[in-house]
Amino acid sequence: MRLALVRLGLQEAVTYRLTSPEREASLRLAARPEAEYVRLANPIAADRVVMRRQILPGLVESVERNARLRERIAFFEIGPVFLPRPGADLPDEPARLGIVMTGRRELPGWQPEDAGLLGFFDLKGVLEQLLAELHVSARFEPAQVEPFLPGKCAAVQVGETVIGWMGELHPLLAQRYDLAAPALQAAELDLAPLLAAMPLRQDLAPVSPYPPVLEDLAVVVDEKVPAGRVEAVIREAAGELLERIQLFDLYQGEQIGAGKKSLAYALVYRSTDRTLTDDEVRAVRERIVRALREQVGGSLRQ
Description:
alpha+beta; BirA Bifunctional Protein, domain 2; Alpha-Beta Plaits; 2 domains; seven-stranded mixed sheet; 8 helices; 26% helix; 28% strand; elongated
């Protein structure tokens, strides 16, 4: 996981495991009863009196200290949190993964760069690529939890288990850390269910010697329909001839009407034992269009 995240352009951080309840409360909008902590019998500093329950507060503090010095920050940390167990001498120490990203998408250089700012989908892309390298299938479902901005928050779900959340830090909380702009993207995931979902072996298939058939489909659906749901319908309808699918465009505007969005997918069809004919590809496309219409109310964009 560390190697994959470094290849994706992130730097590993190691933050304090000692903290205070007040520090962790800085990532909460509403006041609520203080959680139970593992407390130190002899703390060495007034602001380091308990063991952390979350990774994100320490990472956000690291961003705050570095934001004035760097145009792009992308940190991750893998480490334990400490959760008291009633009646037990020692706490649970589940491992967590925390990620924070903010600033420019690419740093200036001699080649043309992407001058945009890191956003929600940049973080989602990092998580998707990490999960792909671990060969773990996950879903991203809309959610609303602290400390994230409503509408820019998602639960990361493996099977039926929610392993964590990702999203954009709420602006009111960002101001507490003197992080008014640009927006901070963050995620915190439980590693135990993620690692348990990793397969021990991978099925390999020979590379087909037959040429692929490339096709783009732009699908118009209600704006509330998740892109992942549309992709799942396409995969199921296309069957084994679909080698790869990739979402490459999202459009919302007057051409498709209010409350709608257009999702454009690049599809690659290929057979392992023959060259596909136009009739075969047409039959697959018709199955996809029919399934989209019946299952998500979708239609091809004209």
